Amino acid sequence: MPEMTQHLLRQVAEDINELDSLLPDGLHLSFNASPSQIEKPGFVFDTLSFLAALPLEKYRLVVEVTESQPLANTPEVAGTILKLQLADVAVYFDDFGTGCANLNCIEQFNVDGLKIDRLFVEGLSSGARSASIISLIAGLAQSQKMDVIAEGVETACQSQALCEMGIQIQQGYLFSNALSKTQLQQYLAA
Question: What pTM does this model have?
Fold first, then answer.
């Protein structure tokens, strides 16, 4: 992993350990990784080193593969995904339906979940097309026994529509803005 990512993961591990008593069991900790990062030797080791720095069995680590470039369909990449999954690290395709995160990816790779791009969620307010696309993605994920996360949820109406489509895991400003460690600590302690 690039040095900056390694530094950030070390800092997150320190912060999580400091806030551990305030955080709920089962919390998903996600970080984005580009296909070029996943394809590099050492990615599994670095990811599992991060996981080892966290309290055991309390959190679920999720690697979100970004859509910026295609993920190489090689035995090495398939092996990386499998090694992560065997260590109970989930692998999701981020921003599914945009960029290089497409239907072909589901056919080629055995991942645990899909993250619906905020563009589709924003479109829920203005028309049926986005609702149809999200519903199709949710149905596809369900048929493949994958989890689904919706990002960019900003209104209660969007959240309700997503819930009606069976998408319970949501993130966005409706729930919280990005918080510093200090702000998170205050929020959790309240």
Answer: 0.91
